Amino acid sequence: MSIPSRSLGRDVHIYNASDPTGPVLGGLILTNGVTNANFYSMVEVFLFFDSNYVLRHEDGTDVQRDEQALRPGNFYIVTDGSITVNDESWLVRTMSVSSGTRVAGFRDAVRDRDRRCVITGRPALSAQYGIWRGFEAAHIFPLAYEGHWMERNYGGWITIEPSTGGSINSVQNGMLLASDIHQLFDGYDVSINPDDNYKIVCFQLDSHGIAGRHIDQQFLDDPRRPVDQLLRWHFRQAVLANMRGAGEPVFEFDFPPGSDMMGEIMEGPKAAERMEFELFSRLAGVT
Prior knowledge:
The protein contains eight helices and ten strands. The chain is α+β, with helices and mostly antiparallel strands. Strands 2-1-5-4 form a four-stranded mixed β-sheet, with helices on one face. A two-stranded antiparallel sheet has the order 3-6. A two-stranded antiparallel ribbon has the order 7-8.
């Protein structure tokens, strides 16, 4: 079974200038809104440097840390020091539409606050009738990894505790998203960079016209909005999943009734991590 890679379609590639024909260190599918400064900050997520460096475009010009739009092409890291690839694991994740008594309050709080897809801005027009079809309350940090959440005390970022479900089900760990955008967000194909005025970043081809837009001020002014630390965590995960090395796999998530879901997962990459996610995503919503 052929597993597609997140590197397919990359038009930006990164190499060590001292080994220009060596292995690719990373890359990017370039979409609207990615600036030179953004590029530097993303490179510094998955690569470590012990001295100053500069990114040099294949045409020989050095890339400045400015707000000019990044150009496609090969980029070479010029440095007198060493370059180390960050081996930090990213949390394997596909779709995480949770149900159960633990998440009912989370869903209702997110709906009440947002009433629209936060990323596209599309309003849930039928919400006034209690109809939310096409919209889903998405966890920023996935409920399936609550053990990871607790071990690292991410709940310390939460200031609005839910009445039930634990800190991971706080409204500050959620956003209302259109169903298709929820899939992209859970798959790290789309993220929000809180350190660049809440810019929407697409790591795969953008078919929704959202890349480079910014989250609206109405959302940012709400005291119940997600905490920046969680948005920053998700954005870092997206960079690690999409930009490092030769590319991470893209996982199948569409398993029609009667298909061998477990068999397909076990035959694919990162089988143990995926099985853990699928198991806990189904149990995490239950009291």
